[in-house]
């Protein structure tokens, strides 16, 4: 099975960040994990990576409810950037609100809406999907 070079986690909650990161590490399918604590920090850093023509993550796990920029603001701005490589964005949130799920569909994420806490099985399924 092909290893994934980079996964990006955008998450402000230390507990969920720890769990998600630990499961990614336990999967043995990922070389590097990037972590950002809010949407603005992630946007700025990922845009700098694009500008420097460096390799972007293949997967972004995005929380919705964060300070500074929430997941929606991140998606609005990040998806405006022309990117040649394919990035799989998964919303990873504690929100079970049906309005959030409908809003997520507007970003063409094709059902990539996961509710926390994520399981090791879900992480493995995501990583093997590529």
Low-confidence stretches: none
* Beta-strand content estimate: 15-25%
- Number of distinct beta strands: 5
Question: Which value, in Å, is the CA radius of gyration?
Answer: 14 Å
Order of helices and strands: EHEHEHEHEH
Tell me what you see in this structure.
41% of the residues lie in helices and 21% in strands. It has a single domain, classed as Rossmann fold (3-Layer(aba) Sandwich). Strand 3, helix 3 and strand 4 form a beta-alpha-beta unit. The protein has 130 residues and is an alpha/beta fold. The mean pLDDT is 88.
Offer a few descriptive terms:
alpha/beta, Rossmann fold, 5 helices
Report a brief summary of the structure:
The protein has helices at 14-27, 39-51, 71-78, 98-105, 120-129, and strands at residues 4-10, 30-36, 59-62, 88-93, 113-115. The protein is α/β, with parallel strands linked by helices and 130 residues long.
Draw up the topology in text.
Blueprint: E1 4-10, H1 14-27, E2 30-36, H2 39-51, E3 59-62, H3 71-78, E4 88-93, H4 98-105, E5 113-115, H5 120-129
Parallel strand pairs: 1-2, 1-3, 3-4, 4-5
Helix pairs in contact: 1-5, 2-3
């Amino acid at each position: 099975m092909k290893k994934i070079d980079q996964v990006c986690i955008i998450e402000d909650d230390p507990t969920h960040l720890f769990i998600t990161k630990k499961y990614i590490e336990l999967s043995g399918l990922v070389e590097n994990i990037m972590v950002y604590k809010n949407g603005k920090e992630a946007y700025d850093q990922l845009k700098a990576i694009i500008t420097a023509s460096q390799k972007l993550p293949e997967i972004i796990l995005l929380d919705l409810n964060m300070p500074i920029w929430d997941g929606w603001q991140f998606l609005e701005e990040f998806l405006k950037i022309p990117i040649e490589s394919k990035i799989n964005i998964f919303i990873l949130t504690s929100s079970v609100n049906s309005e959030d799920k409908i809003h997520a569909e507007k970003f063409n994420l094709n059902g990539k809406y996961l509710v926390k806490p994520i399981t090791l099985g879900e992480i493995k399924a995501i990583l093997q999907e590529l």
